[in-house]
Amino acid sequence: MPSTKAEYGSSPQFDRGRARVLKHFLEMDRIYKTAWFFDRYEEQARKNIAAELQTLEAQ
């Protein structure tokens, strides 16, 4: 099965929609709702999302 990016990536709407979703995650108080995931992954997830947003905005 092809990836979503491979199938729709050439559409400018794809990147705008992806950026909107990623910004939503960063606006949330917590991405991960359980303490176990929050403690282990929240900080890195936020860094990864911010880096992806920078990539999208640079295009």
TrEMBL record:
This is Uncharacterized protein. It comes from the Bacteria. It comes from Parapedobacter deserti. The lineage of its organism: Bacteria, Pseudomonadati, Bacteroidota, Sphingobacteriia, Sphingobacteriales.
